[in-house]
Structure formats: structure tokens, C-alpha cells
């Protein structure tokens, strides 16, 4: 698995976030945090039933916000950060909400002293955010966050689909 460096401490890789080795992975969750389709369902399945129980105690999550749990049966990471991205066609301000997803996820990773965090594509599946726009927003926010914070962390965009990988590698 080849990592391509977008900038200092920021990488893109063609891989599934579900099994990516890092301190934390970021789940593109729905507002209930109780699992769903796509990467959310895959993460819940891999982490096992204890993840569902932990998520029930979080009482959901609003768009743009992020919450954290342990990874339970998912052995490749310690934490799962759950963030709810905007539904592109229904949101009044999808860019602002997507920016908040990345910022709030990174803030949690720093709070929990994670040295690496792997992001899945937030809102780029059934939520319909155009992948080229989403990649640009994600890259911009993460770069700004890394410049602003004096915290050593490796950020990886895990691109499961070829279209995601192409969109991120075009940013180099």
C-alpha cells in the first residue's frame, strides 16, 4: 500500500479505512451513530456489538460534530471518531458543515493524543457531496489545522474507491 504525501504530515492512500492501522479512524456516520450502510456499516460490523452499545450512550451526533469511542474488536486502531457530514443537496451550507467535520475530528484526535488518524470519505457516498469538491475541502481544512496546531499527528485520507483516490491525488 503506497502512501502519497500531499503535504507535511498529510497523506493519501488507496485503502479501506476499516482495516487501516492508525491510532484513530474516522467514521462517516449518520446522526443516530447506530450504524448504517457503506463505511459506517462496515466499521460497526468489524468493531462488533460493543460499538453499538457505546454509540447508544452518545445519544446521536449533529451534522458537523464528532464523537469518539473505543474501537472494540477492530484491532487496527484504538479509537473510532464518528462524524456526521452534510447531505449535499439538503444542506444550507454543505462546505461549512464538511469543514466542521474535519476540524472537530482532528480536535478529538488531539484531545485523545492520537499520533495518526485515518479519514474515510465524509459525505461522498449516499450523502452526495461531489468527490472533487469534498477532497478539496478536506485537504484545505486539514492543512490549515496542521499549520495552526503544534501537535505531531499523521493524517491519512483512505480512499476506498478509485474516484476518491483520483480526486485526492489531483490535489498534489
Helix and strand layout, with pairings?
Layout: E1 3-7, E2 10-14, E3 24-29, H1 38-47, H2 49-56, E4 66-70, E5 79-84, H3 94-111, E6 116-119, H4 131-148, E7 154-159, H5 162-169
Parallel strand pairs: 2-7, 3-5, 3-6, 6-7
Antiparallel strand pairs: 1-2, 4-5
Helix pairs in contact: 3-4, 4-5
Key structural traits:
about 170 residues, Leucine Aminopeptidase, subunit E, domain 1, seven-stranded mixed beta sheet, 7 strands
What does this structure look like?
The chain is an alpha/beta fold. It has a single domain (3-169), classed as Leucine Aminopeptidase, subunit E, domain 1. 36% of the residues lie in helices and 22% in strands. The protein has five helices and seven strands. Strand 4 (66-70) and strand 5 form a beta hairpin. The radius of gyration is 14 Å and the shape is globular. Residues 1-172 form the Macro domain. InterPro entries: Macro_dom, Macro_dom-like. This is Macro domain-containing protein. Pfam families: Macro.
Short description:
It comes from Lactobacillus jensenii. This is Macro domain-containing protein. The chain has 172 residues and is α/β, with parallel strands linked by helices.
CATH class: Alpha Beta
The structural domain count equals 1
Calculate the mean pLDDT score and round it.
Answer: 96
How is the main sheet built?
Answer: 7 strands, mixed
CATH topology term: Leucine Aminopeptidase, subunit E, domain 1
**Structural class based on helices, strands and sheet pairing:** alpha/beta
Low-confidence parts lasting 5 or more residues at pLDDT below 50? none
Side-by-side strand order of the widest sheet = 1-2-7-6-3-5-4
CATH architecture: 3-Layer(aba) Sandwich
Total strands: the figure is: 7
- The rough form would be described as globular
Helical amount: 25-40%
Euclidean distance between termini CA atoms: 18 Å
Proportion of β residues? 15-25%
Total DSSP helices: 5
CATH homologous superfamily caption: Leucine Aminopeptidase, subunit E, domain 1
Give the topology string: H per helix, E per strand: EEEHHEEHEHEH
Query: Rg from C-alpha positions?
Result: 14 Å
